[in-house]
Amino acid sequence: MPATDVKFGITKHEGALIDSVEVEKKIEQKALKGSDGNVARVHVYNPTNSGSVKGHGALTVVPGVGDAGVSGITGGVTVITSVKESENNEDFDGWEYQFEHYPNAEEVS
Fold first, then answer.
1. Considering the entire predicted model, what is its pTM?
2. What's the mean pLDDT in 14-43?
């Protein structure tokens, strides 16, 4: 019977020539210590996602507010923070972009 707990290949991006997709989910936290010195209360807030996509072929993103093109990154505001394009004598041309996603934010014009 085949294993179903892991996947092989890229499933988070629609592109056909994608080398890698990385997503890091983060939160901020504030801990309040009690009078005995141990943490008594914790509040987590400001969830964010950041990541990168690396591939080849047509590049459809530019720096600024946009769509990361990564499944699971929805709602809020996504900012494409950098785009890098590359050419090499011994490899195919390629690109890579970085993004920050703020799921609870609204874009300000």
1. 0.81
2. 92
